[in-house]
Amino acid sequence: MDIMLFSSTYGLRPAVRSAAERLETAGHRVWTPDLFEGRTFGDVEAGMAYKDELGKDELLKRAVLAAAPYSDRGLVYAGFSLGASIAQTLALGDEKARGLLLLHGTSDIAANAAVDELPVQLHIADPDPFEPHDWLTAWYLGMSKAGADVEVYRYPGAGHLYTDPELPDYDAEAAEQTWRVALGFLETLETPETLETPEK
């Protein structure tokens, strides 16, 4: 499976590269585009400030340009928090998308969004201050209305970015469970035929 994996607002931290390596060990091809052009941040406030400075349109432009050379393969879009939001936007706009793996985040759904039973899996802390229950209920209904086949996994007591070992949010048990389920999800998706090795 070919996976386009986007980082959180912290930037392309070691946890993202470790996640990519875990996916590659399972036999997948993974791209980790650096939308922040080398910048990483030690706290969420700094990362959010830089994100706002760039603007949503610029981030999406960078993401589309990063995915474009590989989109004909039929990508699985994935991401962490902010990266999940970006992944969702790209997947809903790509008729060849094979799946969507969301870790710690979701995004708005365009009123005209329509997909053909796109497999979607969301892993989220419960509760998550960035993804309140009312929002997630509306998001689930919106994704289902758009035609997505959605699974949601909640992790009580975990912090927002609970898969990142370098953050206070980290929850080792929840992180390992997330990766077990996510890898199983990816195994259910049809694998495209390709021989190229992704450039890092």
Q: Could you please describe the fold and organization of this structure?
A:
38% of the residues lie in helices and 17% in strands. It is of the alpha/beta class and 200 residues long. The chain has a single domain, classed as Rossmann fold, CATH 3.40.50. Strands 2-1-3-4-5-6 form a six-stranded parallel β-sheet, sandwiched between helices. α5 links the parallel β5 and β6. α3 crosses α4. The longest helix has 16 residues, at 172-187.
Major sheet description: 6 strands, parallel
Spatial gap, N to C terminus: 16 Å
What structural category characterises the helix and strand content?
A: alpha/beta
Strand count: 6
Taken from the alpha-carbon principal axes, the silhouette is globular
List low-pLDDT spans. 192-200
Computed over alpha carbons, the radius of gyration is 15 Å
Number of helices: 6
- Please state roughly what percent of the residues sit in beta strands, choosing from under 5%, 5-15%, 15-25%, 25-35%, 35-45% or over 45%: 15-25%
Instruction: Summarize the helix and strand pattern as letters.
Output: EHEHHEHEEHEH
CATH evolutionary superfamily: Alpha/Beta hydrolase fold, catalytic domain
Question: Helix amount, in percent?
Answer: 25-40%
> Mean pLDDT score, rounded?
93
CATH topology: Rossmann fold
- Domain count: 1
Per CATH, the architecture is 3-Layer(aba) Sandwich
The strand order across the widest sheet is 2-1-3-4-5-6
The CATH class designation is Alpha Beta
